[in-house]
Amino acid sequence: MPSNTIQQILLWDAAKLAEALLLDVASARLEVQYLLQHVLKTSRAWLLAHPEAVLSETQQADHDALMQRRLHGEPIAYLLGEREFFGLKFKVSPATLIPRPETELLVELALQRILPHDKCRVLDLGTGSGAIALAMAHNRPAVKILACDVSVAALDVARMNAQRLGIDNVFFMQSDWFGALDAQLFDLIVSNPPYVKEGDPHLQYGDVRFEPPFALASGDDGLRDIRHIIIHAKPYLDCGGWLLLEHGYDQAVLARELLQQNGFGEIFSVCDLAGIERVSGGKLV
Ligand code: GLN
């Protein structure tokens, strides 16, 4: 049997990946399947139905190149160029954070505050790939969302995502938090800002090593940007408007305190699927 059948590649490469990245073999196998699907431009079903198929020389070379990059730790989402979030496919590049499952909680909590045909105005601060804004816009076509980011490269990715998803109720703008905004009022402000402590050992492992540091780290206590957003949000929120923020595993108490000190009421925190308080928010009263 030639050694480059799909079955062999899955077996060998999954073992290699599992060892290099300390993954369990099932996850490693899934990753190799994703890479093969990408290189062969095929479905998972086809792959599983053709274990004996042999890769052409070019396909094998393309697969090997991706495997090498993955073995060095590059995130699978950057290698595939996309990641699913809230049921939608998003293009991602090293210019943006990779959308994470826990951020879907922020979208759910934001959507709960908007009735299906509500024409409310939403601001997404630090939009990155546009995942939060576009997932909201897709589910609430009547809302108008302004999505800002300080990074032009990230905004390019976000605009491309809007176009690919056929979403036309999100408007993009370069802004350092509220910095470039005209005086205007929103009904809802959402943000997944950077919130990891500068120098946190967590930044040395896994995918985060390849993600833009300015999208992850936020001062010595990880709260620099959250503090800035909470302190400056008030003039941009209509009466009764909500501010919802994603934050780190140990930041809920401080986020609630900051919200309380800055004129917010109905303050709450909600846990993600891992049971960690992940999103906090409040209403301008
Ligand atoms: N949840 C991310 C992590 O721990 C951080 C995302 C962020 O800073 N907004 O890697």
How would you characterize the overall build of this protein?
The longest helix is centred in the first third of the chain and has 16 residues, at 6-21. Helix 9 links the parallel strand 6 and strand 7. The chain is elongated. The strands form two sheets. Strands 5-4-3-6-7-9-8 form a seven-stranded mixed sheet, with helices on both faces. The mean pLDDT is 96. Helix 1 crosses helix 2, helix 2 (25-40) packs across helix 4 and helix 6 (103-112) runs parallel beside helix 7. The chain folds into two domains: 6-73, Helicase, Ruva Protein, domain 3, CATH 1.10.8; 94-284, Rossmann fold (3-Layer(aba) Sandwich), CATH 3.40.50. It has helices at 6-21, 25-40, 44-49, 57-71, 76-80, 103-112, 131-139, 152-165, 224-232, 252-261, and strands spanning 82-85, 88-91, 121-125, 144-149, 170-174, 186-191, 237-246, 264-271, 277-284. The chain contains ten helices and nine strands. It is an alpha/beta fold and 285 residues long. Glutamine (GLN) is lined by residues 100, 192, 194-196, 208, 216.
